[in-house]
Amino acid sequence: MEQILETAKKISSMEVRGAGRIARAAAAALRDFAICLHMQDAGDFDAEMRKAANILLATRPTAVSLSNAIRMVLRYRSNDVEEAKAAIVSNANRFIQNSEMAVERIGEIGSRRIRNGDTILTHCNSMAALSIIEKASKSGKGIKVIATESRPRWQGRLTIGMLEEMGIETELIVDSAVRSAMNDVDLVVVGADVITANGSLVNKIGTAQIALCAHEARTGFMVAAETYKFSPKTIMGELVQIEERNPEEVLPGISKYKHIRVRNPAFDVTPHNYIDIICTEVGTIPPEMSYLIIKEKLGWEMDEAASASSASYSHD
Ligand code: RI2
Q1: Residue among 290, 314, 288 at smallest CA distance from 226
Q2: CA nearest neighbour of 189 among 157, 221, 149
Q3: Residue 153 Cα to ligand 1 middle (Å)
Q4: Which of 25, 151, 219, 280 is the most buried (most CB within 10 A)?
Q5: Which residues are annotated as catalytic?
Q6: Residue 241 DSSP code
Q7: Is 18 in the pocket of ligand 1 (CB under 6 A)?
Q8: Is the CB of 150 under 6 A from ligand 1?
């Protein structure tokens, strides 16, 4: 269980971060854990795998990519430990490969909506959003990017590092400069932690105010989201839990204040009517079609979504 705890620590401390990356890290950790488990009894094996899954699930409560990845990896039915292991290894490898391919494909599809000379605003550090920007630039379109700092974890600094590598002209702004920058923006492109059944977006804190500004300025707002970022649980009416992180991330040394409370929600909710398009690996969709992605692409049955709504995780 040591490797699982190690991966869990990296995910909760955000050493490994980004909804896609954490999903792939969890899939790889479960695969490696299964390979190392030496047990004869299938029931004991299942119980250990469930325990490992629950540890990983508890790390970042908002990102549905994590629970979707874990459910895909642990989709097996066998009373034979070796057969179960083989299924887990193959499921995990397939998930990781598909996830990487999805990011590439999103880049190809989404970049078609970017025109030569466009200025793109992006928030936080999303591999899916950056894939779109990179593909647009590589296809010869002269583009400029405005990147937000993304307080309190400064993921914008990761983004500008990557844009620097790509050779793309970039401006870094503080999060609160978004409205004054918006008049120069042609398209906002952001990633996703969760897309709900009604097409709303849960993404890095600050995304909702960017969407509001874009809406008011009549600027397009595109979301880059692999299909495993869509939440089956929301079909059953469940609300997305917003992760509240350690206040120290916002105000180091907070304990010296007696009357000050710091809130540190990691994500916010952007209503679907502020989103023009969601770019997935199976094509661009209006947010209103999110329900169909959950039903048809993720292939979740209603009873499965219902059981995922219960407090504890369980595999097939
Ligand atoms: P990709 C990140 O969350 C950001 O909110 C980003 O928009 C989202 O994951 C998707 O990232 P965090 O881990 O999967 O920084 O597109 O809290 O890389």
Answers
A1: 290
A2: 221
A3: 12
A4: 280
A5: 124, 193
A6: P
A7: yes
A8: no
67 contacts 19 by C-beta, under 8 angstroms: no
Give the distance from CA 61 to its chain's centroid. Answer: 12
The burial class, CB within 10 Å (0-12 / 13-18 / 19+), for 10 is middle
Q: How far is CA 60 from the centre of its chain?
A: 11
- pTM score, two decimals? 0.92
The encoded tokens of residue 120 equal: 């793109």
Residue 192 Cα distances to 25, 184, 271, angstroms? 17, 23, 13
Which of 232-251 are b and which e, b meaning 16 or more Cβ less than 10 Å from the residue's Cβ?
Answer: bbbbeebebebbebebebee
Question: Whose C-alpha lies nearest to ligand 1, atom 7?
Answer: 191
Per-residue tokens: 301: 């049955």
Helix, coil or strand: residue 14: coil
Closest ligand 1 atom to 103 CA? 16
Contacts of 6 (CB under 8 A, 6+ apart): none
The pLDDT tens digits along the chain (316 residues) read: 889 999 999 999 999 999 999 999 999 999 999 999 998 899 999 999 999 999 999 999 999 999 999 999 999 888 899 999 999 999 999 999 999 999 999 999 999 999 999 999 999 999 999 999 999 999 999 999 999 999 999 999 999 999 999 999 999 999 999 999 999 999 999 999 999 999 999 999 999 999 999 999 999 999 999 999 999 989 888 899 999 999 999 999 999 999 999 999 999 999 999 999 999 999 999 999 999 999 887 766 555 555 554 433 333 3
Burial letters 65-88, b for 16+ CB under 10 A, else e:
bbbbbbbbbbebeeeebeebbebb
